[in-house]
Amino acid sequence: MEDRKQRIILVGRSQAGKTTLTQYMTDQQLSYHKTQTVQVVEGQFIDTPGEYMEQRGFYGALSVTAADVDIIALVQSAVDESTMFAPNFGSMFFGKPVMGIVTKIDEASPEQVRRADLYLEQAGASTRFWVSSMTGEGMDQLKDWLREK
């Protein structure tokens, strides 16, 4: 049987860092652009528009988009003072593993990073990583974890 990479969907509000994270993980040049549609990057990462989180009417589309993935990645910016993830949000994905990624840790205080981590824990992310797509901090641990999956 062919070895294939785990397919990961990135879910989070606009400007949480999903696109930049995907660019970093796939060795692309970092350049911000607003994600308008679902984008599959290198057959592994599924980058979703922030509107999928911000407007409940899109939850159905989010659920359908996640149907063929292996891992759900909830993405929370450390500098965002609030969260869009309701408690146990990850349970809507029907038993798929849910991980959390705290982004922008290079711009945040330790307290902000811990708060973002708590948001993700409460949302159902059992495994969580703290990363910066700008400095690379935490990225090796995330890449290693994904390789082991």
Q: Would you mind describing this structure in some detail?
A:
This protein has 149 residues and is an alpha/beta fold. The chain has one domain: Rossmann fold (3-Layer(aba) Sandwich). The chain is 29% helix and 18% strand. It is built from 5 helices and 6 strands, in the order βαββααββαβα. It has helices at 18-25, 51-54, 59-65, 110-123, 139-148; strands spanning 8-11, 39-41, 45-47, 71-77, 98-103, 127-130. It has a 6-stranded mixed beta sheet with strand order 2-3-1-4-5-6. A hairpin with a 3-residue loop joins β2 and β3 (45-47). The longest helix has 14 residues, at 110-123. The two termini are 16 Å apart. The relative contact order is 0.18. The mean pLDDT is 90. This is EutP/PduV family microcompartment system protein. Belongs to the EutP/PduV family. Keywords: Nucleotide-binding.
Q: What can be said about this structure in brief?
A:
With 149 residues, the protein is an alpha/beta fold.
Identify the notable features of this structure and list them briefly.
149 residues; alpha/beta; Rossmann fold; six-stranded mixed beta sheet; 6 strands; 29% helix; globular; EutP/PduV family microcompartment system protein; ATP binding; nucleotide-binding; EutP_PduV; P-loop_NTPase
